[in-house]
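Same chain as my last thread, 190 residues:
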Amino acid sequence: MALKKEIEIIIEPKDIFVGDKNAPVTLMEFGEYESEECAKANEIVKQILENYDGKVRFNFRHFPQTRIHQRSLKAGEAAIAAAQEGKFWEMHNVLFENRRSLGTTSLKLHSKEAGVKSKNFLDSLVNGVFGWQVQDDLKEGIDRGVKEIPAFFINDEPLKGKVTYANISAAIEEALKKTTKKKSPAKQRA
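reply #2:
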């Protein structure tokens, strides 16, 4: 008698968005949870999502700098584990708030703060269940030319210049203009 193995579907970071799923602009960030610069960028992202409600959706991709931040990989796995329960954004923000305390035991405590109910959360971290998803993000970031974090993309175009609210906002405005041009019918000349 053969046993049927249950196939568990993992919600991957590339499929996790915050904001209106039909928003015309997708803001994607490659970053990690121990980085001070990424924590500052997270505050900018919160402002962007608030000010561009309905126009922008956000996707965070993991790019752990493990040579500098040894706990960034497990923190990324913790965020993906939380996403399996629909708690990605909550966990994402808790991790940034506690970026100096990201040991495995602390991650379990942070998950409770984020509202994660899974009894297997700690096991999945210890066993690296979501490690491949973090590695896939890292590989995609490298393929896209990411060298420093935070790195932003607006509708798949890399953000040029510094990561500031004004700079990201200007790039979003430009992307919004492009999307409205595509939607409006071309005017014909007589």
